[in-house]
Amino acid sequence: MIHELKPLEPLLQQKNNIQLHPEIIEILFENRRYIKNIFSDLNGLYDIAHIGLTCIDPSNECIVFSTTPNVEYNLISQNLWEYDHCFYPDPVEKNTLLWWDDGLEKIAKIKLENNQFTLGMSIVRPVDDFCFIYSFATKETYQDFRRYYSDHLFHLIDIGDYFYKSIRSLYATYNTNYPLPTLSQFNSKEAGRNIRSCLRLVKNINKIR
Amino acid sequence: MEREHFVREFARRLTSLMQQANLGSSKSKAGVKTSGLAEISGCSHQMARRYVLGEALPDIDVIYRIAKWLNVSPGWLLFGKEGDVPNNIGQKNLIQIEHDLLEYILMKSVVLFNITKNTPELISYMMDIIHDATHIEADPKEILKIIDMSINSVMRFHGINDDSRIKTA
Prior knowledge:
Shape of chain A: globular
CATH class of chain A: Alpha Beta
Strand order of the largest sheet of chain A: 1-3-2-6-5-4
Oligomer: heterodimer
Number of helices of chain B: 9
CATH architecture of chain A: 2-Layer Sandwich
Distance between the termini of chain B: 77 Å
Strand content of chain A: 15-25%
Order of helices and strands of chain A: HEHHEEHEHEEHHH
CATH topology of the largest domain in chain B: 434 Repressor (Amino-terminal Domain)
Shape of chain B: elongated
Number of domains of chain A: 1
CATH architecture of the largest domain in chain B: Orthogonal Bundle
Number of domains of chain B: 2
Structural class of chain B: mainly alpha
Number of helices of chain A: 8
Order of helices and strands of chain B: HHHHHHHHH
Distance between the termini of chain A: 9 Å
Number of strands of chain A: 6
CATH superfamily of chain A: Transcription factor LuxR-like, autoinducer-binding domain
Strand content of chain B: under 5%
Largest sheet of chain A: 6 strands, mixed
Radius of gyration of chain A: 16 Å
Number of strands of chain B: 0
CATH superfamily of the largest domain in chain B: lambda repressor-like DNA-binding domains
């Protein structure tokens, strides 16, 4: 069964209720090598130097996996996470790139400057009652790299979907209350358009369909 | 007269650092852009201009902020000798870490060399840990805990890249 992507309104209504998992810091660092290992399969694609995945379950409990966990740690420890795209879905259309330097200057410093990233972006991906936020950053510099990444939006979503699929079993060990969405529930990235995926993993899903 | 010389030498060091930080400007009299300096210093553009022209000396707390901004010690910015620019200037990837903290990371990481032959990847991972340890804003005890968790994450069950695939195959 194919599930349509849900609009963000329900999440926005619950915005103030998002809670961090009580062991979110431990989860970040205990699994960082595993996350890095997965990232090694993606490293270099579109010059991405960082990937992060925020998982918000139907009870609004939030867990984050990241290849650069100092970012999330500093945001959490300084209570800046509530103002950040990577933790809170923004009132925007689905599948839109949210630029890291559009937020608070202090957050941009923690995320970009501290890690020598030249550009960072996040994508909100609601699936059923879950919400996933894919985050990417690069250290490269292009003349018009916002447009470059905007042009590759769906490829970035594919990468995020692949990343989610890769850590789904790990996420399941921390979230036993809800059945986690499978990749088959991550259907089209834009309603009404048949976007051919760039990763083999998603191609296989298309074959199954 | 002595104070004037002191203020001029401060300005000379300040402008030299700003030019090395790509803040030079051919249009301004002092040869540097003062907008960033004014912002960091919390002062007007006119006052920032006086700093770089050697007409005024910032308060000590402002000197600290400027020194941090330009990645030099406040002492050098105030008293360094003309032309004696620290050798770390211009090196974007400079790492500043306390001796004891680096020693702790290295000691804890020794065990990892026994579980992988992928030394380049392991070194890269250790560099990640060092980077985090120097950028996480937390008390020393918390940072040590994070270092421990990061190193344990290798030993926990995943290893380094190929090791993990061998183990989980």
